[in-house]
């Protein structure tokens, strides 16, 4: 039994999701190797070598891997993967883009968004937007899976001393070209890994009013999220979206403001430790999952809450 | 440019899912079925490319039992030119669907295949990427914008933290995200016309694909219900509870 974990990183440092994925790998038993593929990714490699759960770091540092495009990376991972029983990646947009391609190259199934390890071949995963949980057994020699980050505790980041192996094989990207990227720049914590998340919904009424949410979030040191209704209404960008079609989060505290609580939103946040809902409609479904519900006009309650903190 | 677009028959997204009492699967008996919403977006994207004069023909494909011909007809009513149903007794897993589609692609030779990024039943988000691997084509998943520029495809993708733009040589695979477009409804005259459009049925054997199982579904359960808590009367009480009881701030 040995597992290859695909690191999520920006070349300079590892993303927190890598630590949660190592949490899933630890439940499988056996040795864990971590692949860091990128360009000038020495910073991420140094962090990887310090991970106590990892015995070896595989480094692929080349132009072809700069943007971690699936066309080149999938060939690299599929080549390496023949030596492993499990290949895991965080179920973010990068992992979801890459891992099915890896699985098809290896002629095996891929298990998406696993939330539980029952045995080394059997996993639990949500289906139907989290309205059912399937237990699925892999019949293949290699298990290729993406890991729902919020379902596994992060492994420690310090204390290890992994060996580093440099890979020389370079797979070119072929007929796809990277054109550009627009990433939201923010001083707030990352939505996927924040300890506290404050989310706004259609109840905010406009994009300008979202400043109320941002101000409360800054007071709490929280990330800012939104419901799909708020995104569809154009109040905030799509990368803020919490829900089945957006980010799945499980912070210690989730504050839902002006969010009715559609099933698709609940699927993205119902595993939060403590949920607070502020909504003027006392019949809103969000109150059925909230630990603390406040029936109030958010335009009065949110500034009052910010002052009271 | 010839476009192949895939459509899947799934539970209607408004229907509440129930798990069978024996936990063997979800209960789909007498449940309203519809085209997967991401597939609707894929069909719309194909039709808009054709309306813009960039595509010459749209072929809609579905894999599954004969009932999924209904969704192929819907795609024809929305603007696809002809349909193919790959007839399987049950809904195969994504790798098998990808292999069946790869065989259809080999016969049809499209320049572009557009698929929904995931189906709302299995939530797998795999078939497009797997098809790209099997064909050794470039892929642009989770597309929020598609443009044709100098014979290449320029696709903006929704990624964690923002947007990424790729340029792909054709032939290529695109999978659709929610904001790519707002699908139209089929008009009654177009629904009537769609009944006369050709719909071909192919078997996996004809396509040379064996229906091997790579996974086994052991159990399907309802998720743990979260218990609702209490209502607080004021902001002051809320802050007090968060500090003293929940101890999260």
What is the residue-averaged pLDDT of chain A? 95
Strand order of the largest sheet of chain A: 5-9-4-1-2-3-10
- Envelope shape of chain B: globular
The SSE string of chain B, one letter per element, is EEEHEHEHEHEEEEHEHEEH
CATH topology of the largest domain in chain A: Rossmann fold
**Estimated share of beta-strand residues of chain A:** 25-35%
Q: What is the number of helices of chain B? A: 7
Oligomer: heterodimer
Instruction: Kindly report the spatial arrangement of strands forming the biggest sheet of chain B.
Output: 9-8-7-10-6-1-4-5-11
- CATH superfamily of the largest domain in chain A, by name, is HUPs
- Report the principal-axis shape of chain A: globular
Helical residue percent band of chain A: 25-40%
Instruction: Return the string of H and E elements of chain A.
Output: EHEHEHEHEEEEEEEEHEHEHEEH
CATH class of the largest domain in chain A: Alpha Beta
Structural class of chain B: alpha/beta
Return the CATH architecture of the largest domain in chain A. Answer: 3-Layer(aba) Sandwich
Protein name (chain A): Electron transfer flavoprotein subunit alpha/FixB family protein
Pfam family, one (chain A): ETF_alpha
Family (chain A): Belongs to the ETF alpha-subunit/FixB family.
Keywords (chain A): Electron transport, FAD, Flavoprotein, Transport
């Amino acid at each position: 039994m040995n597992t290859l974990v695909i690191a999520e990183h920006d070349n300079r440092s590892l993303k927190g999701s890598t630590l949660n994925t190592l949490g899933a790998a630890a439940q499988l038993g056996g040795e864990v190797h971590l692949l860091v593929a990128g360009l000038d990714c020495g910073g991420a490699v140094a962090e990887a070598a310090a991970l106590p759960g990892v015995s070896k770091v595989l480094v692929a540092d080349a132009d072809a891997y700069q943007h971690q495009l699936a066309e080149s990376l999938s060939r690299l991972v599929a080549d390496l993967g023949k030596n492993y029983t499990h290949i895991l990646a965080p179920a973010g947009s990068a992992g979801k883009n890459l891992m099915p391609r890896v699985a098809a190259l290896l002629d095996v199934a891929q298990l998406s968004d696993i939330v539980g390890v029952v045995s080394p071949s059997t996993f639990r995963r949500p289906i139907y937007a989290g309205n059912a949980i399937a237990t699925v057994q892999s019949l293949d020699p290699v298990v290729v899976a993406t890991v729902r980050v919020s379902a596994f505790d992060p492994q420690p980041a310090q204390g290890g001393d992994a060996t580093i192996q440099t890979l020389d094989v370079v797979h070119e990207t072929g007929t796809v070209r990277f054109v550009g990227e627009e990433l939201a720049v923010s001083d707030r914590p990352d939505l996927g890994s924040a300890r506290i998340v404050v989310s706004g919904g259609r109840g905010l009424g406009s994009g300008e009013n979202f400043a109320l949410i941002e101000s409360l979030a800054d007071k709490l040191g929280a990330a800012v999220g939104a419901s799909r209704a708020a995104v569809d209404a154009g109040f905030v960008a799509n990368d803020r979206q919490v829900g089945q079609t957006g980010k799945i989060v499980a912070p210690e505290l989730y504050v839902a403001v002006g969010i009715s609580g559609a099933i698709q939103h609940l699927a993205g946040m119902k595993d939060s430790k403590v949920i607070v809902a502020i909504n003027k409609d006392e019949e809103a479904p969000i109150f059925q999952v909230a630990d603390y519900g406040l029936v109030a006009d958010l335009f009065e309650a949110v500034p009052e809450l910010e002052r009271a903190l | 440019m010839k476009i192949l677009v895939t459509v899947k028959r799934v539970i209607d997204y408004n229907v509440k899912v129930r798990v069978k009492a024996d936990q063997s699967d979800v209960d789909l008996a007498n449940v309203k079925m519809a085209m997967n919403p991401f597939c609707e977006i894929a069909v719309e994207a194909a039709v808009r490319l054709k309306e813009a004069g960039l595509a010459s023909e749209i072929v809609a494909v579905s894999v599954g039992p004969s009932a999924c011909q209904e969704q192929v007809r819907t795609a024809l009513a929305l603007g696809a030119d002809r349909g193919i149903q790959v007839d399987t007794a049950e809904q195969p897993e994504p790798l098998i669907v990808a292999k069946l589609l790869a065989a259809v692609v080999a016969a049809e030779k499209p320049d572009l295949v557009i698929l929904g990024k995931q189906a709302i039943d299995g939530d797998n988000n795999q078939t497009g990427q797997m098809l790209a691997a099997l064909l050794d084509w470039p892929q642009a998943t989770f597309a929020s914008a598609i443009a044709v520029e100098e014979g290449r495809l320029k696709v903006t993708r929704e990624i964690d933290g923002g947007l990424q733009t790729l340029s792909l040589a054709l032939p290529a695979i695109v999978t659709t995200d929610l904001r790519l477009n707002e699908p139209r409804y089929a008009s009654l005259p177009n629904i009537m016309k769609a009944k006369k459009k050709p719909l071909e049925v192919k078997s996996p054997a004809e396509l040379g694909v064996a229906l091997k199982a790579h996974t086994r579904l052991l159990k399907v359960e309802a998720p743990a219900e979260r218990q609702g808590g209490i209502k607080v009367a004021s902001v002051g009480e809320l802050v007090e509870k968060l500090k003293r009881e929940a101890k999260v701030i």
